[in-house]
Fold these 2 entries.
Entry 1:
Amino acid sequence: MTDDMETNFRGASVPEGIKYNADGLVPAIAQQYDSGEVLMMAWMNEKSIAETLTTGHVCYWSRSRSKFWRKGESSGQVQILKDFLWDCDGDTLLLMVDQKGVACHTGRRSCFYNAFRDGNPAIIADIVISPDELYGK
Amino acid sequence: MTDDMETNFRGASVPEGIKYNADGLVPAIAQQYDSGEVLMMAWMNEKSIAETLTTGHVCYWSRSRSKFWRKGESSGQVQILKDFLWDCDGDTLLLMVDQKGVACHTGRRSCFYNAFRDGNPAIIADIVISPDELYGK
């Protein structure tokens, strides 16, 4: 993949056929475009999709805060959109992104750091940036 | 990654701290464990997680049919579980799988085959196995 992937979605409108849930939201998976690492899953509404396609910076909808969640706005850990995909049923999005720094609020690269090892729950990824540093405490 | 990844979750119980939604479900992303390709997103409940960890074959919960969806049961396109991860908030699962054949009911390898090209919606993946062949028509 090349750096000019953004030309793929430049000028695109929110795709028809996306199935939003009762709250007007659709789940969006963020995947690092070159390494393939799955970074996180969050939710988008029609307006956050439109903003993301227009700006090329990923904007989710925060269910807990009921407002736009411009990824990296407070932490600086932005996601540059590289490609925008959706699935056969139109009920899930896959965002190919270039994640600056870390995706997870815990300071880990990916939010998916819990797994089983030898049958027991284990944390399988290290903290890369301390949350204090991320959120300026 | 090796073929004995299954030893990681052998004997594991459904992890505590998973946050199910009002319907008792949690979204599960399936990713091909070696190539990193994101294949699909579906839903699991506690019992389908338990079955998946016990059998090593991925079992979702079908929201449309309100029953267990043992992936590949009718199509033969099973998903062998290689690793089982969950995120920082416990509200999304990431299944590292070995997808036999194709994940998508359309006969494509991945369900994420819709994207924009030159700003217009486009299908970016070919059909590998015809749905007629998959479902024995």
Entry 2:
Amino acid sequence: MAFTPPNPFDQQKPIPGVKHIIAVSSGKGGVGKSTVATNLALALSKQSPETKVGLLDADIYGPSLPRMLGALNQKPEISKDSKLQPITRLGLKIMSIGFIIEENSAVVWRGPMLFKAMDQFLRDVQWGDLDYLVVDLPPGTGDIQLSLAQKVPVAGAVIVSTPQNIALIDAKKAIDMWGRVAVPILGVIENMAYMLNPANGEKIQLYPKGEMDQYLDAKKLQKLSEIPFNPSISMSGEAGIPIVESHPKSPEAEAFRKAAQAIVEKLK
Amino acid sequence: MAFTPPNPFDQQKPIPGVKHIIAVSSGKGGVGKSTVATNLALALSKQSPETKVGLLDADIYGPSLPRMLGALNQKPEISKDSKLQPITRLGLKIMSIGFIIEENSAVVWRGPMLFKAMDQFLRDVQWGDLDYLVVDLPPGTGDIQLSLAQKVPVAGAVIVSTPQNIALIDAKKAIDMWGRVAVPILGVIENMAYMLNPANGEKIQLYPKGEMDQYLDAKKLQKLSEIPFNPSISMSGEAGIPIVESHPKSPEAEAFRKAAQAIVEKLK
């Protein structure tokens, strides 16, 4: 009798009440993934007054959502049936590994502990009814990403990249990884696409443009939006009020809304 | 009889011929760690005509040194005694996981494989005589960092961070981690500290200044250098000739040399 290896996707179960799980991932760190995830979640929630959005910060190594959403030092409550209650900020239901562990302590976690934590965030949080659950993943193509794809049906992945080829190489790896676990790519958000010179309005190409557009064309993938670099984005994040909320009329907020609309269309 | 747990540092052995192993690490990705490691290694090698420097790219998830040093698609030779020969570029002896694996393939490696790869890079590469071996580590505080500290005596760690608090939080975790494995901190390099406006020479604070200076003062740690952001740095990296080599008279190259000098002093 032939041996059939266990199929890890057998564990896959939807989260009751959650319609679409969107993975926000990047190949490389520092491309603004958490900033994009946060602003995207906010932009999605502003699509209509009824749209309900959750935001799960699964960036175990550098959880930044508590700070970006002005929710530092919050402790989620635990209900009678042992469920973690998400914190609500700006209309978003948020949960973060940062609520559970100390901000300053070195996190030297190994694979199995990461799996367990992910499981809890997906199963033991009282998400309630959500149209979209945006999951901010750690950069790269490691255990957490695989774990997510194995445990829940992911509606699609958004890849965040900066323009230069060194970032694109890693973005390709992320795209490749999602393909292997049969998660569709919703598209790529090009972050820090350029900066407008505060002195004269001219474009400054902070990072040289690589071959992203040609690559996306060849792969028939969509660029969901180009987000300009603006020091206000980082400043808003540090202050705990993302730019979609703090400067809703800025070109940057508009670029996030454009990405959100494209995603809504794709998931219809 | 009491049980004595095995001490993982018992495995620690120097690399024959290598005087100082310098770990370049960051809490967060995308702060320019590999750019700093590369330019720092070059600046160290230019301290005197005799100074010999090696550069090990241990960033398993996103090896970027082959591209940054114009050594894509190189295959290291293997000597008769089964040692890997480092590639020489701009006077540096370099070795990278990128020479071994395909650039586009998704690297979904787990802990034990990472340990094994690190071991090979430290033991099975014919480094020869080196004054400094600069190790470019992945961002964060994971298996590779611990593995390095357990296997070889690390002379000190350089932490790369950008100015804002969200980056500083992660830098603190990295500093904390090195403390736990008794590796001294040589200092912090503040990258992307500001940008000079190409239109009028005014400073643009790309990322808001956080509490780094106060933190370093309190911890009695040195800021080795502030590196300005300049699109030429990224452009030089993409072109395979780091800025210390391509624009040796630029303020950015000067800032890298300043960091190298500070490190040489500390290791005397």
